[in-house]
Amino acid sequence: MHHNGTPPRFGFLIDMDGVLYRGPEIIPGADRFVHHLRDRGIPFRFLTNNSQRTRRDVVARLTRMGLDVEEEHVFTSAMATARFLAQQKPGGTAYVIGEGGLLTALHQYEYAVVDHDPDYVVVGEGRTFNLEMVEAAVRMILGGAKLIATNLDPNCPTQNGLRPGCGALVAMLETATGVKAFSVGKPSPVMMRAARKELGLSTDETTMIGDTMETDILGGVQLGFHTVLVLSGGTRSDDLPRYAYRPEIVVESLAELADLMDRNGWRTPWHQVMNGRTVQRSAV
Ligand SMILES: [Mg+2]
């Protein structure tokens, strides 16, 4: 049910955790927002730093929550990392500390996963690494393998609080080797720019929506995207004054952004709906 023939010249990169869902629960309004995007043919990608799951796993999870999406809508740091490595060194080898999403993505990009003398040590999240793997990785890095992080998130929210994130594991390898990792996930322009290109849109036509200042909003600001901070995840409006950069707009959740888009029938980007007014309702 597209309302005219030409596709809209604006689109969204949407973080998942804290924007679409919290733990196993969908955040009210996320389904309505995504439904409208699909209904109007507005391009979007879900952007996650979590490299644990494959695209298919992510779609299965979102479908269970009632979101109607396809694999093409999902862009993970695992995919961004595999694509980046394939450009840097086609047909290379990697020692992987990570899980299915990362292994699958590397294989798709013709990478061999090896235990000896790899071109790269690639680190993602997972629950299965042990100190033997860390020790092996340290030896490889000191032997000349390049250290690649899918992301540097220090921790990840769980139903029970927090678990250590990929960044915590990477820090252990950096400390042990004295070698700095190259990170591909948000806010790295490597992932942000690749995702924008997938939308087929220009910088100014792209809006990043997220709940984390250090990744979603920082990445969006650095690339010149429009930025929307949602307060449905890890950031409170009280947190904002301590950052040197700020999102263009702060909303409670995707439900509020959907209300904003309703005003103009989803035909123009939200920042035009605002009519040039700055919506900075919180004390920034
Ligand atoms: Mg998030």
Kindly summarize this structure in a few lines.
By secondary structure, the chain is of the alpha/beta class.
Strand order of the largest sheet: 5-4-1-13-14-15
What spatial form do the alpha-carbon principal axes imply? globular
Helix content: 25-40%
Give the N-terminus to C-terminus distance in angstroms: 40 Å
Query: Which small compounds were modeled alongside the protein?
Result: magnesium ion
* Backbone structural class: alpha/beta
- Unreliable spans are 278-284
Mean pLDDT across every amino acid position:
93
Instruction: Estimate the strand proportion.
Output: 15-25%
What would the keywords be for this entry?
single chain, 284 residues, alpha/beta, 10 helices, 15 strands, 19% strand, binds magnesium ion
Topology:
Blueprint: E1 11-15, E2 21-22, E3 25-26, H1 30-40, E4 44-48, H2 55-64, E5 74-76, H3 77-88, E6 93-97, H4 100-108, E7 112-113, E8 120-123, H5 131-142, E9 146-149, E10 155-158, E11 161-164, H6 166-177, E12 182-183, H7 189-199, E13 206-210, H8 213-223, E14 226-230, E15 249-251, H9 254-262, H10 270-273
Parallel strand pairs: 1-4, 1-13, 4-5, 6-7, 6-8, 8-9, 9-12, 13-14, 14-15
Antiparallel strand pairs: 2-3, 10-11
Helix pairs in contact: 1-9, 3-4, 3-7, 5-6
This protein binds magnesium ion.
